[in-house]
Amino acid sequence: MEHTSHTHSPRNDYGRLIATILLFCLLAAAGYALQHTISCFLLSWVIAYLLDPLLVSTERRGMKRLYALGLLYAILSILTVFFLAFILPAITINWNAFIIDLPTYITKLKQVALEWKSRLPDRYGSDEIEWLIDKASGNIDAAAEKTGFMAYNFGTRIFFNLFNIVLSPILVFFMLYYKQTVIDTVISWLPDNWRTLIIGIAHEVDSSIGGYLRGQVIVSIIVALLATITLYVLEIPLPIVCGVFAGAASILPFIGVIIATLPALFFAWFKFQSTAMLSQVTVAFLLIYFVEGYVIKPLVFKKSMNLNPLVTIIMVMALGETLGFWGILLALPIASAIKITWGHFVHGDFKQR
After folding, report:
1. Which of 65, 93, 237, 255 could disulfide-link to 267, CB 3.0 to 4.6 Å?
2. What are phi and psi of 62, to 5 degrees?
3. What does the pLDDT look like over 74-118, one tens digit per residue?
4. Which of 91, 94, 102 is nearest to 148 (CA)?
5. What percent of the chain shows pLDDT beyond 90?
């Protein structure tokens, strides 16, 4: 009998492994098929996660959650009207100006490529350099077509996602209203011997993820405002677009600083064609990200995730490739949750159950 149990246990393990792999494949396929629904759900979840501390603070002062939700939605409605009346038109004007001036940018890039080609000395290796310049100038039109297609696709996606934008506030309301009911239901499903441990891990993950998401939103808004004001003072074209891009790029760890400066440097070079102006823009962004890294983030992020840089980059690349924007945004929280859970596993907390 012992021999029989030993021979069948590996097969059972293999069966469980295969079943787990198939389950993940089915989840991935379902996620791809329902990507718009999942995107709407994730947007609603992030918004609810960011707003929940405000409701908790009002509940501690004696206000019922339903009334707090009503007050919160009234304030958000006023802010939404302000955004639609003032901020959105400015962003739209900047974006339309970029689309209209795109052919001019392409023509200027071609002229610069031809000037570089004409200035090449007749030396060894110049043929290869000319070939590279011809190749690059030939790809400019293709890049312009891709840029125009991306701009059109971006506008089209916004139009077709209006339903999700309208549905999201409704989902947020019910997520916030039934939050405690959902938590109590999930806790009741947990086994008694694992309940305390899992609740403890959930509190640690909640503290880490909540602090990161709320802090990152604050940091991105501050970076976007600082970049927009700085570029406006320096008279760089499309300051709002470049500022919003800088705020969004600050989500990316390590390389976000470099990516954020590229549009501003391009527009500065296109308008002024001056090394001094490029230096001013570079110094301005260095100062912004110095303030962000050494002043804003230490104040906003009370607890650091202390993640390994290599693990951070791999998680951002992998989840960004599979989930797009949401993968990039949630890469660090997911990595932090895995790290916290793995720490309890290494310390033997799971073996003691």
Report:
1. 237
2. 100, 0
3. 998 898 888 878 877 877 777 777 777 777 777 776 676 666 656
4. 102
5. 8
Cα–Cα distance, 85 to 67 (Å, whole number): 27
Give dist(CA 56, CA 332) in Å, integer: 25
Structure tokens at 264: 């501003």
Contacts of 22 (CB under 8 A, 6+ apart): none
275-291 and 192-233 helices, crossing angle to 10°? 150
